[in-house]
């Protein structure tokens, strides 16, 4: 499916500031009663609201209650509620420490080559045509957020420049809150497609498809490859096929965010299926890939951005030109990416024995979360908590949209010291055999009080 919407113009020098603008700045920075006034007054730089997630984390830390539960943070915890270093990461860490050639020199602008090539094979498959035909260019990024950001920058600079107005990006309602900021900050218009039905606590597939059908040709559609954040609700494979068909018919551009490959179901192939189906259909597309969750490398910020072009005689030329512009964007943003997390992931991805251990670690994490889903649903049904709770086990991955409303969430926090986002999303990794019954009892009490 050739795409002629990407243009790579020559760089233009920045325009000089006008005399009027310089005069305005001069007046702003002038003296007032002998005191220099800032050029960044409150009318120019208003106080920003606190990030809701980090505010929730801070409130949890301040809480002195003996029994409290953090279900907000999106990070895996073991059955003791502690951060878990994957055994395979410990092995790779030990190998790195013993490597006599380890140094702290700069990586190339595009990142660690062994890491980016292994990342391609992980997300697309080592025998994928996009890999064997060299139709993909990849850049190491600062986790998934960095991958989204460089993709957003690239789109804002080069995508569909001939259109009368900038193409919008359609995002699910709800979506990960940072998606709106990433794309809004580079002035890509954002729109929404329906995704989650609060009535059924499942996918609003008809609403999603109908909105995508009505999107103008050339629009961008942001898709969660698996373990949708924040709902935990994914399309079935048949629904993915319909989504691809509609997007192809209406000439829409896919941008996949994949943060949970292997973590969601325990199967790397199953969690990567949607991306590879779109590739098989000939789409040109972007992928933002994170290693925070599936390697537990939260603070190491290891990620990868991939541009895939569709099959064409000039595909490799397209990849080369796109790569040259991505290098300029990367250079101006971070110069080159951090090395340590990429080295850990690269060791694992390129060593068959370590890779097999990683797959076992993934099954450990996904399996514990699945067990917590079963335990929570079972307890709520045992208590005969008003409502239906099958969606707890129907959903997948780290998060669950419980169906609790903002008032109920507030009651859980004030009375029972349970911390979760206002929209009722919980991190299933925050539950364990020591607190799941307490949480279920608290939910039962609050639901009965507020129904």
Description:
Belongs to the class-I pyridoxal-phosphate-dependent aminotransferase family. Residues 1-38 have a biased composition (Polar residues). It holds the Pfam family Aminotran_1_2. Residues 1-43 are annotated as: Disordered. GO terms for molecular function: L-aspartate:2-oxoglutarate aminotransferase activity; pyridoxal phosphate binding. The chain has 451 residues and is α/β, with parallel strands linked by helices. It folds into two domains: 52-85 and 366-450, Aspartate Aminotransferase, domain 1, CATH 3.90.1150; 106-350, Type I PLP-dependent aspartate aminotransferase-like (Major domain) (Aspartate Aminotransferase, domain 2, 3-Layer(aba) Sandwich). It has helices at 19-28, 52-62, 87-98, 113-124, 129-132, 143-158, 177-184, 205-214, 237-249, 268-271, 273-280, 292-295, 315-333, 340-350, 352-382, 391-394, 406-416, 436-450; strands at 31-32, 35-36, 69-70, 136-142, 169-173, 190-194, 196-197, 202-203, 220-224, 253-258, 285-290, 302-308, 399-401, 418-419, 425-427. Helix 14 (340-350) crosses helix 15 (352-382).
């Amino acid at each position: 499916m050739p795409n002629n919407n990407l243009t790579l113009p020559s760089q233009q020098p920045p325009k000089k500031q006008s005399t009027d603008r310089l005069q305005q700045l001069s007046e702003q920075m002038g003296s007032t009663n002998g005191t220099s006034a800032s050029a960044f007054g409150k009318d120019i730089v208003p106080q920003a609201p606190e990030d809701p997630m980090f505010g929730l984390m801070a409130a949890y830390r301040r809480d002195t209650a003996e029994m409290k539960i953090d279900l907000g943070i999106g990070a895996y915890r073991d059955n003791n509620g502690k951060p878990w270093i994957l055994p395979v990461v410990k092995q790779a860490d030990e190998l790195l420490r013993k490597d006599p050639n380890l140094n702290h020199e700069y990586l190339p602008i595009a990142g660690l080559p062994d890491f980016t090539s292994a990342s391609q094979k992980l997300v697309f498959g080592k025998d994928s045509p996009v890999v064997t035909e060299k139709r993909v260019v990849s850049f190491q990024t600062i986790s998934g957020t960095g991958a989204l950001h460089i993709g957003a920058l690239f789109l804002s600079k080069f995508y569909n420049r001939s259109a009368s107005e900038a193409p919008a990006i359609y995002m699910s309602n709800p979506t990960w809150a940072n998606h709106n900021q990433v794309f809004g900050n580079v002035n890509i218009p954002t729109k929404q497609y329906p995704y989650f039905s609060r009535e059924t606590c499942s996918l609003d597939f008809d609403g999603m498809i109908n909105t995508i059908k009505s999107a103008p040709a050339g629009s961008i559609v942001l898709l969660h490859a698996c373990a949708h954040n924040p709902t935990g609700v994914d399309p079935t494979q048949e629904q993915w096929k319909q989504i691809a068909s509609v997007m192809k018919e209406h000439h829409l551009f896919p941008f996949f965010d994949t943060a949970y490959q292997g973590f969601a179901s325990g199967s790397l192939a199953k969690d990567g299926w949607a991306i590879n189906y779109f590739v098989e259909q000939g789409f040109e597309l972007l992928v933002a890939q994170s290693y925070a969750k599936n390697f537990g490398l939260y603070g190491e910020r290891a990620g990868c951005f991939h541009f895939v072009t569709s099959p064409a005689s000039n595909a490799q030329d397209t990849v080369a030109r796109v790569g040259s512009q991505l290098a300029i964007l990367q250079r101006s943003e971070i110069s080159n990416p951090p090395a340590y997390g990429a080295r850990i992931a690269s060791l694992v991805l390129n060593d068959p024995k370590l890779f097999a251990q990683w797959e076992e670690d993934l099954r450990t994490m996904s399996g514990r979360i699945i067990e917590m889903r079963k335990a929570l649903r079972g307890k709520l049904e045992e208590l005969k908590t008003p409502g239906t709770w099958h969606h707890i086990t129907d959903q997948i991955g780290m998060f669950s949209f419980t169906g609790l409303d903002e008032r109920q969430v507030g009651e859980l926090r004030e009375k029972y010291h349970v911390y979760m986002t206002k929209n009722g999303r919980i991190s299933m990794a925050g539950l364990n055999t020591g607190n799941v019954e307490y949480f279920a009892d608290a939910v039962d009490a609050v639901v009965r009080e507020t129904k």
